[in-house]
Design a protein that fits this description.
InterPro entries: TPR-like_helical_dom_sf. With 244 residues, this protein is an all-alpha fold. The chain has helices spanning 11-30, 36-48, 52-77, 82-97, 101-124, 128-131, 137-149, 153-163, 171-181, 184-200, 214-225, 230-234. Helices cover 70% and strands 0% of the residues.
């Protein structure tokens, strides 16, 4: 019987999905392209099958693809824009899966500077990004994620409650609030919600990696709580808010 924090994946189904993803990746390579979302999927499938070395290899390939994408966006749009900030946060989250906390923080540091500047400029100009956060939920979700990973917990909470006006559910903001309040029970409840949601909606491990990314935050919440998970394999740091 599974523990309350566990999600049991079907190895046969996971192997099938991995095989299909690898086939797509091989086809992409024939055309000289790499899609980070495919590589992330393969990396996570490998990890949930217990092959962490192979999983890390594909996450590193995803990082390479994302870095290339960021360079392309910079060449077209410049550096200080929301697309760069969001993609840097997505890149940072990839580093989390292989335990490279230094690079994670570096990307988040750069992203946060851009997020804050873009928001302040939008606010000054009464732009819809500041006036109607529900329309730009991706911006606020990823902004909160970046603040969270820098340890700016109050700011991560404020991004949701003040700037985004509570218009969207942001797991990183919730985790930040539990840490600030030292509320292990709330963290435990959040993990249960993530488990139930992933199971109910049959979210695959690579579901919505661009924004809400429930599997990422499921692993992050377990790491904070001191529960077994992938992030603990690559990051041996102690739990922030143990639940057991």
């Amino acid at each position: 019987m599974a523990e309350w924090w566990e999600i049991k994946l079907n190895p046969k189904k996971l192997n099938k999905m991995l095989k299909e993803e690898l086939s797509r990746i091989e086809e992409d390579e024939q055309y000289g392209v790499m899609y980070d979302f495919r590589l992330i999927a393969a990396g996570r499938y490998y990890m949930y099958l217990g092959n962490f070395d192979e999983g890390k290899k594909y996450i590193l390939k995803a990082i390479e693809a994302k870095q290339k994408r960021i360079e392309e966006v910079i060449s077209k749009l410049g550096y200080e824009n929301d697309a760069i900030a969001m993609n840097k946060t997505r890149l940072a989250k990839m580093y989390r899966w292989i335990g490279d906390i230094e690079k994670l923080k570096q990307e988040c540091f750069e992203a946060v500077k851009i997020f804050r500047k873009v928001y302040e400029e939008a606010k000054k100009m009464n732009d819809s990004l500041a006036r109607n956060p529900e329309v730009y939920s991706y911006f606020y979700v990823l902004w909160a994620d970046a603040e969270y990973y820098l340890g700016n917990y109050q700011m991560a909470v404020d991004v949701k409650k003040v700037f985004a006006k509570n218009t969207t559910g942001i797991v990183s903001s919730a985790l930040a609030e539990y840490i600030l309040k030292n509320d292990a029970q709330a963290l435990k409840n959040q993990i249960k919600i993530l488990v139930e949601g992933i199971i109910e909606f049959r979210c695959e491990p690579d579901y919505d990696t661009n924004v809400y990314d429930p599997w990422h935050w499921y692993e992050e919440a377990k790491k904070i709580a001191g529960l077994p998970g992938i992030f603990s394999i690559f990051d041996p740091s102690p739990p922030i808010l143990p639940v057991c």
